[in-house]
Write a structure and sequence with these properties.
Distance between the termini of chain B: 77 Å
Radius of gyration of chain A: 16 Å
Helix content of chain B: 10-25%
Largest sheet of chain B: 6 strands, antiparallel
Distance between the termini of chain A: 32 Å
Shape of chain B: flat
Largest interface: A-B, 28 and 34 residues
Low-confidence stretches of chain B: 149-237
Order of helices and strands of chain A: HHHHHHHHH
Mean pLDDT of chain B: 64
Largest sheet of chain A: none
Structural class of chain B: mainly beta
Mean pLDDT of chain A: 84
Number of strands of chain B: 11
Oligomer: heterodimer
Structural class of chain A: mainly alpha
Low-confidence stretches of chain A: 85-96
Strand content of chain B: 35-45%
Shape of chain A: globular
Order of helices and strands of chain B: EEEEEEHEEEEEH
Number of strands of chain A: 0
Chain lengths: 193, 263
Protein backbone atom coordinates (compact mmCIF):
# COMPACT_ATOMS: atom_id res chain seq x y z
CA UNK A 1 0.00 0.00 0.00
CA UNK A 2 1.31 3.44 -0.92
CA UNK A 3 1.17 5.64 2.15
CA UNK A 4 0.73 9.33 2.73
CA UNK A 5 3.23 11.04 5.00
CA UNK A 6 3.72 14.61 6.29
CA UNK A 7 5.53 15.61 3.07
CA UNK A 8 2.78 14.37 0.75
CA UNK A 9 0.06 15.78 3.01
CA UNK A 10 1.78 19.17 3.20
CA UNK A 11 2.22 19.26 -0.57
CA UNK A 12 -1.43 18.28 -1.04
CA UNK A 13 -2.61 21.14 1.17
CA UNK A 14 -0.34 23.48 -0.80
CA UNK A 15 -1.80 22.02 -3.99
CA UNK A 16 -5.30 22.88 -2.84
CA UNK A 17 -4.26 26.49 -2.23
CA UNK A 18 -2.44 27.00 -5.54
CA UNK A 19 -5.64 27.19 -7.67
CA UNK A 20 -6.95 29.90 -5.36
CA UNK A 21 -3.80 31.92 -5.96
CA UNK A 22 -3.74 31.35 -9.73
CA UNK A 23 -7.47 32.01 -10.19
CA UNK A 24 -7.30 35.17 -8.14
CA UNK A 25 -4.23 36.75 -9.67
CA UNK A 26 -4.44 35.42 -13.22
CA UNK A 27 -8.23 35.41 -13.62
CA UNK A 28 -8.10 32.10 -15.42
CA UNK A 29 -9.63 28.68 -15.17
CA UNK A 30 -6.47 26.78 -16.02
CA UNK A 31 -6.12 25.57 -12.46
CA UNK A 32 -9.59 24.05 -12.48
CA UNK A 33 -8.66 20.75 -14.11
CA UNK A 34 -5.73 19.88 -11.82
CA UNK A 35 -7.82 20.96 -8.83
CA UNK A 36 -10.53 18.47 -9.75
CA UNK A 37 -7.92 15.81 -10.48
CA UNK A 38 -6.44 16.36 -7.02
CA UNK A 39 -9.83 16.23 -5.34
CA UNK A 40 -10.77 13.16 -7.42
CA UNK A 41 -7.60 11.44 -6.22
CA UNK A 42 -8.35 12.14 -2.57
CA UNK A 43 -12.03 11.24 -2.94
CA UNK A 44 -11.08 8.03 -4.76
CA UNK A 45 -8.77 7.01 -1.94
CA UNK A 46 -11.31 7.87 0.70
CA UNK A 47 -14.48 6.48 -0.86
CA UNK A 48 -13.32 3.82 -3.34
CA UNK A 49 -10.30 2.37 -1.54
CA UNK A 50 -12.02 3.28 1.75
CA UNK A 51 -8.73 3.87 3.47
CA UNK A 52 -5.76 6.18 3.32
CA UNK A 53 -2.71 4.69 4.97
CA UNK A 54 -0.57 7.24 6.73
CA UNK A 55 2.84 7.51 8.27
CA UNK A 56 2.36 10.37 10.75
CA UNK A 57 6.06 11.08 11.33
CA UNK A 58 9.30 10.96 9.37
CA UNK A 59 12.55 10.16 11.12
CA UNK A 60 16.04 10.72 9.71
CA UNK A 61 16.28 7.26 8.20
CA UNK A 62 12.90 7.61 6.51
CA UNK A 63 13.87 11.02 5.19
CA UNK A 64 17.01 9.49 3.63
CA UNK A 65 14.79 6.81 2.17
CA UNK A 66 12.45 9.38 0.62
CA UNK A 67 15.35 11.39 -0.80
CA UNK A 68 16.99 8.26 -2.18
CA UNK A 69 13.86 7.25 -4.07
CA UNK A 70 13.22 10.83 -5.21
CA UNK A 71 16.62 11.26 -6.79
CA UNK A 72 16.63 7.74 -8.16
CA UNK A 73 13.34 8.51 -9.89
CA UNK A 74 14.76 11.73 -11.32
CA UNK A 75 17.95 10.06 -12.53
CA UNK A 76 16.00 7.29 -14.27
CA UNK A 77 13.44 9.66 -15.78
CA UNK A 78 16.13 11.95 -17.16
CA UNK A 79 18.04 8.96 -18.49
CA UNK A 80 14.91 7.78 -20.26
CA UNK A 81 14.68 11.16 -21.98
CA UNK A 82 18.03 10.42 -23.63
CA UNK A 83 16.67 7.40 -25.41
CA UNK A 84 13.89 9.47 -26.92
CA UNK A 85 15.62 11.48 -29.65
CA UNK A 86 14.72 15.11 -30.07
CA UNK A 87 12.61 15.11 -26.97
CA UNK A 88 11.18 18.54 -26.30
CA UNK A 89 8.41 19.35 -23.90
CA UNK A 90 5.58 20.66 -26.03
CA UNK A 91 4.38 24.07 -25.09
CA UNK A 92 0.71 24.37 -24.36
CA UNK A 93 -1.55 27.32 -23.91
CA UNK A 94 -1.16 27.49 -20.19
CA UNK A 95 2.58 27.65 -20.48
CA UNK A 96 2.30 30.66 -22.74
CA UNK A 97 -0.34 32.76 -21.09
CA UNK A 98 0.47 32.45 -17.41
CA UNK A 99 2.91 34.65 -15.58
CA UNK A 100 6.13 32.72 -14.89
CA UNK A 101 5.45 32.51 -11.15
CA UNK A 102 1.92 31.25 -11.73
CA UNK A 103 3.22 28.87 -14.36
CA UNK A 104 5.62 27.32 -11.87
CA UNK A 105 2.85 27.01 -9.32
CA UNK A 106 0.65 25.47 -12.00
CA UNK A 107 3.16 22.74 -12.87
CA UNK A 108 3.67 22.04 -9.15
CA UNK A 109 -0.09 21.67 -8.80
CA UNK A 110 -0.23 19.37 -11.84
CA UNK A 111 2.45 17.16 -10.31
CA UNK A 112 0.72 16.95 -6.92
CA UNK A 113 -2.68 16.30 -8.49
CA UNK A 114 -1.40 13.62 -10.87
CA UNK A 115 0.45 11.85 -8.08
CA UNK A 116 -2.56 11.84 -5.77
CA UNK A 117 -4.73 10.48 -8.56
CA UNK A 118 -2.44 8.11 -10.48
CA UNK A 119 -0.27 6.83 -7.66
CA UNK A 120 -2.27 7.56 -4.51
CA UNK A 121 -5.53 6.28 -5.92
CA UNK A 122 -5.05 4.36 -9.17
CA UNK A 123 -1.89 2.40 -8.34
CA UNK A 124 -3.27 1.56 -4.91
CA UNK A 125 -6.49 0.43 -6.58
CA UNK A 126 -4.62 -1.85 -8.99
CA UNK A 127 -2.51 -3.19 -6.12
CA UNK A 128 -5.71 -4.48 -4.57
CA UNK A 129 -6.69 -6.29 -7.78
CA UNK A 130 -3.43 -7.24 -9.52
CA UNK A 131 0.07 -8.45 -8.75
CA UNK A 132 2.45 -5.50 -8.06
CA UNK A 133 4.25 -5.71 -11.43
CA UNK A 134 0.99 -5.60 -13.36
CA UNK A 135 -0.36 -2.84 -11.12
CA UNK A 136 2.71 -0.74 -11.90
CA UNK A 137 2.41 -1.36 -15.64
CA UNK A 138 -1.33 -0.71 -15.66
CA UNK A 139 -1.12 2.61 -13.82
CA UNK A 140 1.89 3.69 -15.92
CA UNK A 141 -0.06 2.89 -19.09
CA UNK A 142 -3.14 4.79 -17.97
CA UNK A 143 -0.89 7.70 -17.04
CA UNK A 144 0.45 7.65 -20.63
CA UNK A 145 -3.02 7.43 -22.18
CA UNK A 146 -4.13 10.38 -20.07
CA UNK A 147 -1.26 12.40 -21.55
CA UNK A 148 -2.62 11.92 -25.06
CA UNK A 149 -4.74 14.94 -24.18
CA UNK A 150 -1.61 17.06 -23.82
CA UNK A 151 0.87 15.52 -26.22
CA UNK A 152 -1.53 14.30 -28.90
CA UNK A 153 -0.47 11.20 -30.73
CA UNK A 154 3.22 11.95 -30.64
CA UNK A 155 4.43 8.49 -29.73
CA UNK A 156 7.96 9.45 -28.75
CA UNK A 157 6.57 11.85 -26.16
CA UNK A 158 3.99 9.35 -25.01
CA UNK A 159 6.77 6.77 -24.75
CA UNK A 160 8.67 9.12 -22.48
CA UNK A 161 5.59 9.71 -20.34
CA UNK A 162 4.90 5.98 -20.18
CA UNK A 163 8.43 5.32 -18.95
CA UNK A 164 8.19 8.16 -16.41
CA UNK A 165 4.76 7.05 -15.19
CA UNK A 166 5.84 3.45 -14.83
CA UNK A 167 8.99 4.46 -12.93
CA UNK A 168 7.00 6.66 -10.59
CA UNK A 169 4.50 3.87 -9.95
CA UNK A 170 7.34 1.43 -9.34
CA UNK A 171 9.01 3.79 -6.87
CA UNK A 172 5.71 4.43 -5.10
CA UNK A 173 5.25 0.67 -4.68
CA UNK A 174 8.86 0.05 -3.67
CA UNK A 175 9.09 2.93 -1.19
CA UNK A 176 5.46 2.49 -0.06
CA UNK A 177 5.19 6.25 0.00
CA UNK A 178 3.69 8.91 -2.21
CA UNK A 179 6.13 11.67 -1.29
CA UNK A 180 9.16 10.53 -3.40
CA UNK A 181 6.96 10.47 -6.52
CA UNK A 182 5.48 13.86 -5.73
CA UNK A 183 8.90 15.44 -5.14
CA UNK A 184 10.42 13.88 -8.26
CA UNK A 185 7.42 14.86 -10.38
CA UNK A 186 7.55 18.44 -9.06
CA UNK A 187 11.27 18.77 -9.80
CA UNK A 188 10.79 17.25 -13.26
CA UNK A 189 7.96 19.68 -14.07
CA UNK A 190 9.84 22.69 -12.73
CA UNK A 191 12.86 21.83 -14.86
CA UNK A 192 10.60 21.57 -17.92
CA UNK A 193 9.25 25.13 -17.76
CA UNK B 1 -15.00 43.61 -39.55
CA UNK B 2 -12.19 43.87 -37.05
CA UNK B 3 -12.71 43.49 -33.37
CA UNK B 4 -9.47 42.22 -31.90
CA UNK B 5 -8.21 44.69 -29.37
CA UNK B 6 -5.06 45.29 -27.40
CA UNK B 7 -5.19 48.16 -24.93
CA UNK B 8 -7.96 49.85 -26.91
CA UNK B 9 -6.03 49.53 -30.16
CA UNK B 10 -7.40 47.38 -32.91
CA UNK B 11 -5.04 44.69 -34.05
CA UNK B 12 -5.17 43.26 -37.50
CA UNK B 13 -1.88 41.53 -37.99
CA UNK B 14 0.80 39.73 -36.10
CA UNK B 15 4.42 39.40 -37.06
CA UNK B 16 7.13 37.33 -35.47
CA UNK B 17 10.55 36.21 -36.52
CA UNK B 18 13.53 34.20 -35.44
CA UNK B 19 17.18 34.42 -36.15
CA UNK B 20 19.79 31.76 -35.76
CA UNK B 21 23.49 31.26 -35.59
CA UNK B 22 25.13 27.93 -36.14
CA UNK B 23 28.48 27.08 -34.61
CA UNK B 24 30.48 24.01 -33.88
CA UNK B 25 33.73 22.26 -34.56
CA UNK B 26 34.78 20.12 -37.48
CA UNK B 27 31.63 20.79 -39.44
CA UNK B 28 31.57 20.99 -43.21
CA UNK B 29 29.49 24.14 -43.39
CA UNK B 30 28.85 23.75 -47.10
CA UNK B 31 26.54 20.86 -46.24
CA UNK B 32 24.55 22.79 -43.66
CA UNK B 33 20.77 22.68 -43.90
CA UNK B 34 18.71 24.79 -41.53
CA UNK B 35 14.97 24.15 -41.53
CA UNK B 36 12.43 26.59 -40.15
CA UNK B 37 8.88 25.39 -39.71
CA UNK B 38 6.18 27.77 -38.55
CA UNK B 39 2.89 26.53 -37.16
CA UNK B 40 -0.12 28.41 -35.89
CA UNK B 41 -2.36 27.59 -32.97
CA UNK B 42 -5.35 29.74 -32.12
CA UNK B 43 -7.02 29.39 -28.76
CA UNK B 44 -10.30 30.94 -27.75
CA UNK B 45 -10.81 31.63 -24.06
CA UNK B 46 -14.02 32.94 -22.61
CA UNK B 47 -12.47 33.03 -19.13
CA UNK B 48 -15.72 32.57 -17.27
CA UNK B 49 -18.46 31.26 -19.53
CA UNK B 50 -17.21 28.51 -21.71
CA UNK B 51 -13.62 27.70 -20.89
CA UNK B 52 -10.90 27.21 -23.42
CA UNK B 53 -11.30 26.01 -27.00
CA UNK B 54 -8.66 25.36 -29.63
CA UNK B 55 -9.81 26.85 -32.92
CA UNK B 56 -6.74 26.05 -34.99
CA UNK B 57 -4.36 23.37 -33.85
CA UNK B 58 -0.77 23.45 -34.99
CA UNK B 59 -1.52 24.36 -38.59
CA UNK B 60 1.51 24.62 -40.86
CA UNK B 61 2.07 28.20 -42.02
CA UNK B 62 5.54 28.14 -43.46
CA UNK B 63 8.37 25.69 -44.06
CA UNK B 64 11.66 26.97 -45.38
CA UNK B 65 15.21 25.70 -45.55
CA UNK B 66 18.41 27.68 -45.57
CA UNK B 67 22.11 26.99 -45.95
CA UNK B 68 23.22 30.06 -44.04
CA UNK B 69 25.10 29.73 -40.76
CA UNK B 70 23.52 32.98 -39.65
CA UNK B 71 20.05 33.74 -40.82
CA UNK B 72 16.61 34.91 -39.95
CA UNK B 73 13.08 34.21 -40.92
CA UNK B 74 9.92 36.08 -40.11
CA UNK B 75 6.27 35.60 -40.81
CA UNK B 76 3.35 37.99 -40.77
CA UNK B 77 -0.24 36.98 -40.29
CA UNK B 78 -1.70 39.88 -42.15
CA UNK B 79 -5.34 39.36 -41.34
CA UNK B 80 -6.06 37.86 -37.94
CA UNK B 81 -9.77 38.52 -38.36
CA UNK B 82 -9.88 36.40 -41.50
CA UNK B 83 -8.21 33.55 -39.63
CA UNK B 84 -10.89 33.51 -36.96
CA UNK B 85 -13.78 34.46 -39.24
CA UNK B 86 -15.28 30.93 -39.35
CA UNK B 87 -15.59 30.86 -35.57
CA UNK B 88 -16.74 34.33 -34.54
CA UNK B 89 -20.42 33.51 -34.44
CA UNK B 90 -19.83 31.68 -31.18
CA UNK B 91 -17.62 34.35 -29.67
CA UNK B 92 -18.64 36.13 -26.51
CA UNK B 93 -17.93 39.82 -26.14
CA UNK B 94 -14.78 40.59 -24.13
CA UNK B 95 -13.42 37.08 -24.40
CA UNK B 96 -9.83 36.39 -25.44
CA UNK B 97 -8.23 34.97 -28.55
CA UNK B 98 -4.65 33.79 -28.34
CA UNK B 99 -2.54 33.47 -31.47
CA UNK B 100 0.49 31.30 -30.99
CA UNK B 101 3.16 31.03 -33.68
CA UNK B 102 5.47 28.12 -33.05
CA UNK B 103 8.82 28.21 -34.82
CA UNK B 104 10.71 24.94 -35.00
CA UNK B 105 14.29 25.36 -36.09
CA UNK B 106 16.37 22.34 -36.97
CA UNK B 107 19.80 22.02 -38.46
CA UNK B 108 21.92 19.25 -39.85
CA UNK B 109 25.27 19.02 -41.59
CA UNK B 110 28.02 16.54 -42.31
CA UNK B 111 31.18 16.74 -40.28
CA UNK B 112 34.63 16.70 -41.85
CA UNK B 113 34.77 12.94 -41.26
CA UNK B 114 31.66 12.39 -43.35
CA UNK B 115 29.18 11.69 -40.54
CA UNK B 116 25.88 13.49 -40.41
CA UNK B 117 25.42 15.69 -37.37
CA UNK B 118 22.09 17.03 -36.24
CA UNK B 119 21.39 19.86 -33.83
CA UNK B 120 18.63 19.37 -31.34
CA UNK B 121 15.55 21.10 -32.79
CA UNK B 122 14.48 24.22 -30.96
CA UNK B 123 10.93 25.41 -30.51
CA UNK B 124 10.27 29.09 -30.08
CA UNK B 125 6.82 30.42 -29.45
CA UNK B 126 5.49 33.91 -30.11
CA UNK B 127 2.19 34.59 -28.42
CA UNK B 128 -0.33 37.40 -28.70
CA UNK B 129 -3.48 37.37 -26.62
CA UNK B 130 -6.10 39.80 -27.85
CA UNK B 131 -9.46 40.77 -26.50
CA UNK B 132 -12.44 40.02 -28.67
CA UNK B 133 -14.88 42.92 -28.87
CA UNK B 134 -18.07 42.18 -30.71
CA UNK B 135 -18.36 43.94 -34.05
CA UNK B 136 -21.18 46.40 -34.20
CA UNK B 137 -23.03 48.48 -36.69
CA UNK B 138 -24.76 51.72 -35.92
CA UNK B 139 -27.27 53.84 -37.80
CA UNK B 140 -27.61 57.52 -37.13
CA UNK B 141 -30.86 59.06 -38.20
CA UNK B 142 -31.76 62.69 -38.61
CA UNK B 143 -34.82 64.19 -40.16
CA UNK B 144 -34.83 67.54 -41.85
CA UNK B 145 -38.15 68.81 -42.96
CA UNK B 146 -39.25 71.61 -45.15
CA UNK B 147 -41.26 74.03 -43.00
CA UNK B 148 -43.76 74.39 -45.75
CA UNK B 149 -44.39 70.71 -45.85
CA UNK B 150 -46.25 68.63 -43.42
CA UNK B 151 -43.91 67.43 -40.75
CA UNK B 152 -43.67 63.99 -39.37
CA UNK B 153 -41.78 62.22 -36.70
CA UNK B 154 -39.63 59.53 -38.08
CA UNK B 155 -38.94 58.13 -34.70
CA UNK B 156 -35.30 57.59 -35.50
CA UNK B 157 -33.99 60.80 -34.14
CA UNK B 158 -33.22 59.65 -30.69
CA UNK B 159 -31.80 56.40 -29.58
CA UNK B 160 -29.13 55.96 -32.19
CA UNK B 161 -26.67 58.58 -31.24
CA UNK B 162 -23.76 56.34 -30.46
CA UNK B 163 -21.03 58.80 -31.15
CA UNK B 164 -20.01 57.65 -34.57
CA UNK B 165 -19.80 61.08 -36.12
CA UNK B 166 -16.14 60.61 -36.90
CA UNK B 167 -16.61 57.20 -38.34
CA UNK B 168 -16.20 55.93 -41.80
CA UNK B 169 -18.00 57.96 -44.40
CA UNK B 170 -19.07 55.60 -47.06
CA UNK B 171 -20.68 58.13 -49.29
CA UNK B 172 -24.25 57.28 -48.53
CA UNK B 173 -25.09 60.76 -47.38
CA UNK B 174 -28.29 61.89 -48.98
CA UNK B 175 -29.12 58.54 -50.38
CA UNK B 176 -32.41 56.95 -49.47
CA UNK B 177 -32.12 54.74 -46.48
CA UNK B 178 -33.90 51.77 -47.97
CA UNK B 179 -37.60 51.32 -47.54
CA UNK B 180 -37.75 52.11 -43.87
CA UNK B 181 -37.95 55.79 -44.63
CA UNK B 182 -41.48 56.75 -43.82
CA UNK B 183 -43.42 58.39 -46.55
CA UNK B 184 -45.53 61.29 -45.56
CA UNK B 185 -49.13 60.97 -46.27
CA UNK B 186 -50.57 63.93 -48.06
CA UNK B 187 -47.31 65.55 -48.77
CA UNK B 188 -45.45 65.82 -51.99
CA UNK B 189 -42.10 65.71 -50.56
CA UNK B 190 -40.05 64.44 -47.79
CA UNK B 191 -36.49 65.03 -47.04
CA UNK B 192 -34.11 62.19 -46.91
CA UNK B 193 -31.62 63.18 -44.36
CA UNK B 194 -30.41 59.82 -43.29
CA UNK B 195 -26.81 58.97 -42.88
CA UNK B 196 -26.03 55.36 -42.83
CA UNK B 197 -22.59 54.79 -41.50
CA UNK B 198 -20.73 52.04 -39.90
CA UNK B 199 -17.88 51.97 -37.51
CA UNK B 200 -15.08 49.55 -37.91
CA UNK B 201 -12.77 51.07 -35.41
CA UNK B 202 -10.43 52.83 -37.76
CA UNK B 203 -10.58 56.15 -36.03
CA UNK B 204 -7.62 57.54 -37.84
CA UNK B 205 -8.08 56.19 -41.29
CA UNK B 206 -8.76 52.97 -43.00
CA UNK B 207 -5.43 51.23 -43.40
CA UNK B 208 -2.32 52.65 -42.00
CA UNK B 209 0.05 49.79 -42.48
CA UNK B 210 -0.05 46.67 -40.48
CA UNK B 211 3.05 47.37 -38.46
CA UNK B 212 1.25 50.19 -36.67
CA UNK B 213 -1.54 47.79 -35.84
CA UNK B 214 0.68 44.88 -35.02
CA UNK B 215 0.50 43.22 -31.68
CA UNK B 216 3.45 44.53 -29.69
CA UNK B 217 5.74 42.16 -27.95
CA UNK B 218 6.01 39.68 -30.74
CA UNK B 219 9.19 40.92 -32.27
CA UNK B 220 12.10 38.91 -33.37
CA UNK B 221 13.17 36.16 -31.06
CA UNK B 222 16.69 34.95 -30.89
CA UNK B 223 17.66 31.38 -31.27
CA UNK B 224 21.05 29.80 -31.35
CA UNK B 225 21.84 26.38 -32.66
CA UNK B 226 25.16 24.85 -31.99
CA UNK B 227 26.37 21.95 -34.07
CA UNK B 228 29.35 20.02 -32.88
CA UNK B 229 30.98 16.99 -34.35
CA UNK B 230 33.39 16.38 -31.54
CA UNK B 231 31.06 16.27 -28.57
CA UNK B 232 30.41 12.85 -27.13
CA UNK B 233 26.96 13.73 -25.86
CA UNK B 234 23.72 13.06 -27.67
CA UNK B 235 23.06 15.82 -30.18
CA UNK B 236 26.11 17.67 -28.95
CA UNK B 237 24.39 18.56 -25.68
CA UNK B 238 25.85 17.11 -22.50
CA UNK B 239 23.85 19.14 -19.98
CA UNK B 240 21.41 16.22 -19.60
CA UNK B 241 24.25 13.91 -18.65
CA UNK B 242 25.48 16.36 -16.03
CA UNK B 243 22.00 16.65 -14.51
CA UNK B 244 21.61 12.85 -14.51
CA UNK B 245 25.01 12.50 -12.91
CA UNK B 246 24.13 14.96 -10.15
CA UNK B 247 20.83 13.19 -9.49
CA UNK B 248 22.60 9.83 -9.34
CA UNK B 249 25.25 11.15 -6.93
CA UNK B 250 22.59 12.61 -4.61
CA UNK B 251 20.65 9.33 -4.76
CA UNK B 252 23.83 7.44 -3.93
CA UNK B 253 24.48 9.77 -0.99
CA UNK B 254 21.04 9.10 0.47
CA UNK B 255 21.40 5.38 -0.23
CA UNK B 256 24.59 5.38 1.85
CA UNK B 257 22.82 7.37 4.57
CA UNK B 258 20.06 4.79 4.54
CA UNK B 259 22.53 1.94 4.81
CA UNK B 260 24.33 3.69 7.65
CA UNK B 261 20.99 4.09 9.48
CA UNK B 262 20.28 0.40 9.14
CA UNK B 263 23.53 -0.59 10.88
Amino acid sequence: MIRQDPISKGLTIMGLLIPVFISTFELTLYALFPSFLLIAGIVGQRYVLKKIEEDPTIDVGEFSDIMFWTFTALAVIFTSSLVIPYFNFPSSIETETLDIMSLRLFVVLMAIAEEQFFRGFLTNFFLLKLPPALAVLASGSIFAIYHFGVYGTSFDLIGYVWIAGTILSYIAVKSQRLSPCMLAHIVNNLLAV
Amino acid sequence: MLALMNHSQEIDSMAAGVWWQCGGRDIDWLTLKVGVEVRLTVIYNTLLYGGVRTLINNELQDNVTSQNKNGEHSITLESLDNIIAPYINDFVNNSYVTFKLIFKISASAFDVYGYQRTAKPIKIVAVATLKWVEPYIGVEGDVVTDPSAQTYEAGYSDGYNDGYNDGYDDGYRGAPYDDTVPSVSGSDEYVQGYEAGYKDGYDEGYWDGYYAAQQPGTGQIASIIVLSATSTAVNGDNSSLIVIGIMAIIALFFWLQRKKGEH
